[in-house]
Specification:
Length: 204
């Protein structure tokens, strides 16, 4: 398998962490989708990463689709439960984490996209996205409470999604002091970063 993506993307990192936890072999192909010479549309018509290329050149995209598929490839470290209620809980955690990343990316693009003049940037839009990021992090903290992991007592996709989202927020928005405000999330992330899957995929 080949994974096309960026080392800075939190969605790509989520897939890479899952692949490491599942002990799956793959080739990582770095791609800057914002570069003028990007070829990502040849694999994903939406021009986004991550994109997983399977044997036979078949492409799969969207991190949620990819990680669900990867979890079926190996019985090692099952990350998504089979039971409907537990499964829905894990997928809801993933949706919350992805929502934080979605809002953060919209915020960052509005603030930094070089093809937009400073006079064209909307502070109200950026404030709205920041509120979503901070609100989502507060919801993560409330949902985690004093549990060892987001969805019970074992690592699941919930924790991987949350860890990748928070790691990206720290990477792109260091002024957001989520660690100081949510000690339980900081404790969870410190525990996650002891795992090689997280330590080896730090955003850069």
């Amino acid at each position: 398998m080949k994974l096309i993506g960026s080392a800075a993307s939190p969605y790509v990192r989520k897939v890479r962490v899952v692949m490491a936890e599942k002990r799956l072999d793959y080739q990582f192909i770095k791609e800057d989708v914002w570069a003028d010479d990007t070829t990502i549309s040849q694999s994903n018509p939406l021009g986004k990463v991550p994109c997983l290329i399977m044997d036979g050149s078949e492409a799969m995209f969207d991190s949620r689709v990819i990680v669900e598929y990867l979890d079926t490839l190996s019985p090692v470290g099952k990350l998504i439960p089979q039971q409907s209620r537990e499964r829905a809980e894990v997928k809801t955690w993933e949706a919350l984490a992805d929502g934080v990343m979605d809002a953060g990316i919209l915020w960052r693009l509005e603030a930094t996209w070089p093809k937009r003049a400073d006079t064209e940037r909307s502070q109200a839009w950026m404030d709205r996205q920041r509120a979503k990021v901070e609100g989502g992090i507060a919801a993560m903290s409330k949902g985690l409470g004093d549990k060892p992991f987001c969805s019970g007592i074992h690592l699941s996709l919930s924790d991987i999604a949350v860890g990748c989202a928070l790691g990206w927020v720290s990477f792109r928005f260091p002024d957001i002091d989520w660690r100081g405000e949510h000690a339980n999330l900081a404790k969870l992330c410190d525990k996650l970063h002891l795992r090689p899957s997280f330590a080896d995929t730090m955003p850069a």
